[in-house]
Request: fold
Amino acid sequence: MLKITITETETETRWILQGKLVGPWVREFRSCWRQHRTPTSQRCTVDLNDVMFIDKSGERLLRALSRKGVQLIANGVYTKHLLDMVQMTSKRS
Reply:
């Protein structure tokens, strides 16, 4: 299961994900992402603090978002390590 909450201020759109970013939930997140229009003047952040697991398809989506300048944040050991790897490989591509 994945819960997606979007909060907006004048300067930021924040996507708060809770649960697991796997299989069908990756597709759901991608679909929501494409439907939601974030003004270019706003910073965009994906908050993964409450995500328990991310599969390979989730990693690919996060890598693509990172390449587009989306800020990915997390505080758990597993998720922080995974984001470090995702952001490192997105900078090489």
Q: What stands out?
A: The chain is about 45% helix and 35% strand. The CA atoms of residues 62 and 86 lie 7 Å apart. The first helix runs from residue 23 to 35.
